[in-house]
Amino acid sequence: MRLKKKVSALSLICIMTATGLVGCGSSKKAGAVDGYAVLANENARKAIDLCIDRKQMCDVLLSNGSFPAKYFTATNLVKNEGKDYTDLLASANVDAGRQDDKEAAKYWAKAKEELGFDKVELEFLTRDTELDIKQAEFYQSEIQEALEGCTVKIQQLPFKQQLQKQDKREYQIVMAGWSPDYPDPLTFLDTMVTGKKKSNSTGYSNKEYDKLIDQAKRETDINKSWALYAKAEELMLKDMYIAPLYQRTEAYLQNPNVKGIVDGAFAANQSYKWADCDDHELNVTEASDIPSMDPAKATDTTSSIALSNTMEGLTRIDKNGNAIPGLAESWTTSEDGLTWTFKIRAGQKWSNGDPVTAGNFEYAWKRLLNPDTKSTYGWILYDIEGAEEANTKGGDAVDKVGVKAVDDNTLEVKLNRPVTYFEKLVFDARFLPVDQKFVEEKGDKFGTSQEDTNYCGPFTMSTWKLEDRFAMTKNPDYWDNSTVKLNTINFKIVKDDNARLNLYENGNVDRIKLSSDQVAKYKDSKDLKYVKESAVFYLEMNSSGKYGR
């Protein structure tokens, strides 16, 4: 598609937003077909992938340094002897992420012939922030323009509700993103294994893919392991249940007196433990509220940021991406790499005064794996002995999981395979401890409000007003309290790009993300910063129907 034509389509987005023209048509007309049936067709999924111009999306709509993604796994996440894992995918000629309207039309024609339809209406689920809506309207325009007879209807929801619909598989197409939980290709690829996070939300299941991932996990030679991962990823991308869109770079403005915020490449995006500013009170914004402060229920970046700053795990990740002691003051690994022993700091307290012990970790991990908890993140613990069986069967199997509090200050973890990055993996929010007494006292309310959450990290939550703001204050009982310089962090929930900018220009906040049309204005400003992230965004296409589980 020619640039002039594409830019015209982009210019229509503001008109569509203003008038509410987010799709029309009916799947019940003659020659029409159910949207789920269309998405179950491989040719239809390939057609949707091929009609999207990622470069135009990145250059014109995002305009923040984000770049087109060709793969599910992020580039520059992990290297071996100077070589990036994704180089293997490039040499294998993996062809996801390219744009070709003519080729898309051919695949679409095949889908029409195979399914016998002329028209279809597809529903596109998005959260209700300004940027997400603009992106959804861009994809809507791309698909409707390239695929004859296809109408796209956009459904806008608050972030928490969007996540709930994704987890229940009550959507047809959604733009989703994945930020790595640890520095290994598996952090992306494992989510598409049958029964795991993205497999569940898309309906994807491929026995050959599962087999390759399992073989790669058990391979001790990193080159052989990566080759198997690459073969699996190539297979998965050809099946096209997800269509890679872009790898994110964030453009933001930051007050020059702010320093020390750690923008991580994996797990939580921002750590404020080492941050500071002139008056020791930092004001920032978030585009959405915290869906959950329960480590077993948190699945998003906002929750992970809140949890990692108000809680402390076994380890913490520093500005160089290295694992450093957290609540574990030290740890050892057995010669075969299968047993890890963590020494928990003595004398640490929860915000309600209860002691922090090794038992809090054992309880938290087993609680997350227990099917009764209904966590969608159990798979991240599957390298622990007995974890997968516990997560699928429950009952007595939960008690047999290979995590044990030897005493109040010693945690022993037994693994199924050597995991060289395990000390980094346990920084992830799902590995945080929880206080059993407090959790059982709060029941279903745990993690839903400031008062119904217990804290043991650098900060504690002092305010949480839903869909408005939340705040953290320095924790006087934190073991490394002297390192923490900020007294308060105020988070204002602002969904509108211009409203965020006004707050910054008026001196009300110290750091904001910029939208594409705001970046150019500040290109020469000393306040403008860029953070290249390892988060990859893509379309998920649900092929299994609204109640496909």
- By oligomeric state, this entry counts as single chain
Tell me about the biggest sheet?
Answer: 7 strands, mixed
Coarse morphology: globular
List unreliable stretches of 5+ residues: 1-30
State the separation between the terminal residues, measured CA to CA: 38 Å
Number of DSSP helical runs = 21
Number of strands: 21
User: Considering DSSP H and I runs of 4 or more, what fraction of the residues is helical?
Assistant: 25-40%
- Which radius of gyration do the C-alpha atoms yield? 23 Å
- Whole-number average pLDDT? 90
Which key phrases capture this entry?
alpha+beta; 4-stranded mixed sheet; 33% helix; disordered N terminus
Describe what is shown at a glance.
By secondary structure, this protein is an alpha+beta fold.
Structure report:
The longest helix is centred in the middle third of the chain and has 18 residues. Helices cover 33% and strands 21% of the residues. Helix 2 crosses helix 8 and helix 12 runs antiparallel to helix 13. The N terminus is likely disordered. It is an alpha+beta fold and 549 residues long. It has 21 helices and 21 strands.
